[in-house]
Amino acid sequence: MIFYGLSSFCCASCAGKARQRRPAVAVAMKRNLRPRASDAGFTLLELIISMTLLVLIIVLMLAALGLGSRSVAAGEKKIEDQERFRSVISIIGAQVESHAPLTYQEEGRSKYYFRGDRKTLRFATNYSIWGGQRGYVIADYKIETGNPGREIFTASESVPGLEGHRDIRFLDASSIAFEYFLKDQADPQGKWVEAVADGDTIPDRIMIHLTQGAKKLSLVFPVRVGGKIVAVQGGAPSVAAGAQPALPRPMQR
User: Fold this and answer.
1) Cβ(156)–Cβ(167) below 8 Å
2) Other Cβ atoms closer than 10 A to 114
3) CA 180/CA 120 separation, integer angstroms
């Protein structure tokens, strides 16, 4: 009897403790079911900020790539322009140094092919732009107006006695002009002039003035063969005393 009573008391005590534990367990389970702050996803504001930063980074990267490509293109163009300028100066030097004092008849007089002013230059040479040293050609240099504030330096070649010519564009600059140095018995010191157009004289030197923006450059090219045609007794033309002999170089093939 006493044992039964003790058993009933123990069961009732255990049941009471179990009822007391159930609310605590339920509360703990509810807490575990709630999402933690660290486990929560991005909010809409955070997503918008992230997308904005990503777009900004992409825009900055594209701008940097564009600036780099433009810098590379500008550098390549500058190198190309420098190489072209050196090639043009080399061609002009070769043609002027290979100048040949060829003449033609006009009204019973011998005249040089050489003509020149500030914007045009014409002379005979043994050096061709396209063929090298393969015969005599007539070179014509012209300075023409291009875009506003720009002038274009072009050259053409023709063969004496034949029709047709070939043209090439040398370069362009803000300003281009020719000058000529003349020296004779009347003026042994010589002087620079803007034109040689009489057909009787070949200058000692030719100067080309180039202006590119704020930069100014003057290049002097010596003329190897030159002088002045004078009439002598008997009507045969001759070179003035003190001038270089007006004899063309042998043609090289």
Assistant:
1) yes
2) 26
3) 12
Domains of the chain, by residue range, sit at: 80-239
Cα separation, 178 vs 222, whole angstroms: 13
For residue 140, which amino acid is it? D
Tokens 């909010």 sit on residue = 43
Q: Can you tell me whether residue 16 is helix, strand or coil?
A: helix
CA distance 99 to 121: 12
Portion of the chain with pLDDT greater than 70, in percent = 73
> What's the confidence (pLDDT) of residue 243?
41
Name, in order, each residue with C-beta under 8 angstroms of 192's C-beta and a sequence gap of 6 or more. 179, 180, 181, 207
* pLDDT at residue 139, rounded to an integer: 94
Amino acid identity, position 65: L
Q: Would you say 139 and 116 are in contact if contact means Cβ atoms under 8 Å apart? A: no
pTM: 0.64
